[in-house]
Design goal:
This protein is an alpha/beta fold. It is 35% helix and 22% strand. The chain has nine helices and eleven strands. Strand 10 and strand 11 form a beta hairpin. The radius of gyration is 21 Å and the shape is globular.
């Protein structure tokens, strides 16, 4: 009887890297090497390889994602956080530290998804009052699990709301990473991106409809001089800038992401 060859982690990595490359999966290589794998270890690994080959995001397979130095639960209930959103949070952290109100800011995260923006800011500023809203009960469930995981369940309040419909009170900062992809651009997205919930990706025929509506609603929930911070899609800066000016916002400012694309829009009201 022929003895079955013993496979090491490196053997599996080399074979799966070729498999993923053939299926046009980005970043097909992993880490670890000399450990010998038993059949019981290989079976679930083969299943993970199969799922990854079908375009399931690595973050969903792992069940977690790192964001601004913290590890969050990540699954199909909410959009996988993007590096651009980390950039937005870093900008906000810097601005909150230098603001006159300091860390006692009241912040609302609209379209919170898995809660990464709200929870990262809550971790950074223990005295701040942070709330998050989302239209998806599933996403809010994931956000609450992340809050519990980070020990923030008592500090960050999540509520189901279509934009600001169910929101009370006023805030120093409203931040939003809302869906900004036009429905007709679906064909431009990768298989991995299309694993995110549709409600977290698409926003009407133009793509900026939800952001336009938030610009209209936000003044009623901003303190005088309060700030609106938006992550936006490519090509949306001019119409959204005009909308802010039309609605009497001031100090309107556009900022690029690290790749040089106009990605963030800031404004004050009152």
């Amino acid at each position: 009887m022929t003895k079955k060859p013993v496979l090491t982690v490196l053997d599996v990595l080399q074979s799966t890297a070729a498999y993923f490359k053939k299926r046009k999966i980005d970043s097909p290589r992993y880490l670890e090497f000399e450990h010998e794998l038993s059949e019981s270890e290989l079976a679930p690994l083969r299943e993970l390889v199969r799922r990854r080959g079908e375009g399931e995001p690595l973050q969903h397979l792992l069940g977690t994602v790192e964001f601004c130095g913290h590890v969050f639960l990540c699954d199909k209930r909410a959009m996988i956080p993007r590096p651009e959103t980390e950039e937005l949070v870093e900008i906000l952290k810097s601005e909150i530290r230098s603001a006159s109100g300091g860390p006692k800011f009241e912040v609302l995260d609209v379209g919170t998804g898995s809660g990464v923006i709200a929870l990262t800011l809550a971790k950074e500023f223990p005295e701040a009052k942070i709330s998050g809203t989302d239209i998806s009960e599933e996403a809010l469930g994931l956000a609450r699990e992340n809050a519990e995981r980070l020990g923030l369940s008592d500090r960050v309040h999540f509520v189901k709301s279509n934009l600001l419909q169910n929101v009370d009170g006023v805030f120093d900062l409203i931040v939003a990473n809302l869906p900004y992809i036009a429905a007709q651009d679906r064909h431009t997205l990768s298989r991995e991106v299309l694993r995110d919930p549709e409600v977290a990706l698409f926003a009407g025929g133009q793509g900026d409809e939800l952001i336009q509506e938030l610009i209209v609603q936000a003044p009623a929930r901003l303190r005088p001089g309060g700030r609106l911070a938006l992550e936006i899609g490519l090509g949306q800066s001019e119409p959204l800038f005009s909308r802010l000016a039309e609605k009497n916002y001031r100090d309107i400012c556009l900022k690029n992401d690290y790749s040089g694309k106009t990605r963030f829009l800031f404004a004050r009201y009152g």
